[in-house]
Write a structure and sequence with these properties.
Layout: H1 2-21, E1 30-37, E2 45-50, E3 55-61, E4 66-72, E5 81-87, E6 91-98, H2 102-107, E7 112-117, E8 122-126, E9 131-134
Parallel strand pairs: 1-7
Antiparallel strand pairs: 1-4, 2-3, 2-5, 5-6, 7-8, 8-9
Subcellular location: Secreted
Main location: secreted
Family: Belongs to the plant self-incompatibility (S1) protein family.
Length: about 140
């Protein structure tokens, strides 16, 4: 009975990581996320990023300032970073600014995700294309 439980547990863990394991080694390694305050006015941007087991605390960015952090993805390739964004006047919501997804990581050139938070939404730098793209969160 216990060997069946172990088998089911291992199978479940592998299935959870399958989306990223198919893209090995792209999902696994060191990454950097940068978030820039790109608002047009004199608006401060609050950034509070969290992963499954880390909370980086609140950071206030003036216009043009950037907050960056680096990390190493977990062995299962399930690392995500959700960042709560707000201005001094209103919350903007929570955005997933890093995820284990081949198309997403390709835009980040498999090493650094550069975000620019603007008046209308967040933009991700598509490094291979060298242009910011409006990001539609899924």
């Amino acid at each position: 009975m216990s060997s069946n439980v172990v088998f089911l547990l291992v199978t479940t863990l592998l299935a959870m990581a399958a989306q990223c394991n198919a893209n090995f080694p792209y999902y696994f390694g060191d990454f950097k996320v940068s978030i820039r305050n790109g608002f047009s006015g004199n608006i401060k941007l609050e950034v509070n990023c969290t992963s499954f087991d880390d909370d980086l605390g609140r950071h206030w960015l003036r216009k043009g300032e950037t907050y960056s952090f680096s990390f190493h993805t977990d062995i299962l390739g399930t690392t995500t970073w959700d960042c709560r964004l707000a201005t001094q006047d209103a919350p903007l919501g929570t955005s997933q600014l890093f995820k284990c997804d081949y198309d997403f990581l390709k835009k980040c050139d498999f090493r650094e995700c550069k975000w620019d938070v603007r008046d209308d939404t967040e933009y991700l730098l598509d490094i291979p294309q060298n242009k910011y793209v409006r990001w539609a969160h899924t």
